[in-house]
Amino acid sequence: MKFTPDALIGQGVDGVDTPAACIDLDAMERNIERMAGFARRHGLRWRPHAKMHKSAELALLLTQAGACGHCVQKLSEAEALAAGGVRDLFISNEVIAPHKLLRVARLAAELAARGGRLAIAVDSPEGIARLAQAMDGAGSEAGIDVFVEIDVGQGRCGAAPGPEAAALALAVAAHPRLRFAGLHAYQGGAQHLRGVDQRRAAIAHAAQAAAATRALIEAAGLVAPLVTGAGTGTMAHEAASGVYGELQAGSFLFMDADYAANEPDAAQPAFEQALFIKTQVISVRAQHAVCDAGHKSHAIDSGLPLLHGLPPERALRYANGGDEHGILHPASAAARLPALGESLWLIPGHCDPTVNLHDRLIGVRGGLDHGVVERVIRVDARGAVT
After folding, report:
1. pTM above 0.85, yes or no
2. Which fold has domain 5-10+271-378?
3. Please, how many CA atoms are within 13 Å of residue 328, restricted to the half-sphere of its CB?
4. What is the predicted pLDDT for the residue at 6?
5. How far is 8 from 90, CA to CA, in rounded Å?
């Protein structure tokens, strides 16, 4: 009989095969409550970034909790989530290829017909002209919200703050099918600056650049309705700036080892680790053990995973074992190796690309030690990178 993931529902966590991406549902839901409460207290919209979880089911869960919509980074992510019932999406990235822009226009029309909306970022005159051409040629009356992206310190996409970005805003407003929606001012490089003061300073610079650009736009007679940005590592500072009206934090939902290395900030909620990789010890040698979760189970761009929930006498250090294996070493001279067949839990270094390695996430209720599988969450946009 062919195995189906839904057959896991109702089983104890011991029944989950390895390696597997598992969600501690209790921790995840506490994270959602804390994020929603933070946004309410500060009078801000929150539009979590779905590039992290890539799941329509989770996006809809966040909408029920108060999210105004969802960010994605790729058009194919937007299409996958829209197919799963998500109706308010912002492609917080540039799309330039004409054939992709025709898909953007079709998706904008589809969402408008369902009472939803699509937004997109631009950072060049050519990008605006190509988007307008695609919208005009799509055979629909639907429009699209357009944010001018400004580079507030990331050094990636984005027009220069000030006159260059203001000119782009006026260019957007000149096209009848394009609705100027405001400024996209995300400082991604600040999210993992370790010190609170470092993060605060980076966002102070970003907020100043966004405010100055908005002032120029409005001096030219065009309303700038919104400044959107912020991530899990810095959202307290965007919220305190008085400049940002919408928070795009996404990693708060699951967290990871890299975020855990940041100095905690008392100004924002303490989010819990909710994403884990269940792995099993498949070999024990004299000086090390081997588990079955290698690179294909978790991303290593932000470092190797940590072992979760082990007491000091059993503390382990994960070392690179290649695609299919992890090498486990005692973390101290007094620590002992795990037993053959023992299950362990890894905290991935980076949640976003880890999720993209899995077709599904196993939702566990009641804790990792003795919990029960409550839901199996499809990763709808896995591999959606176009």
Report:
1. yes
2. Lyase, Ornithine Decarboxylase; Chain A, domain 1 (2.40.37)
3. 31
4. 85
5. 34
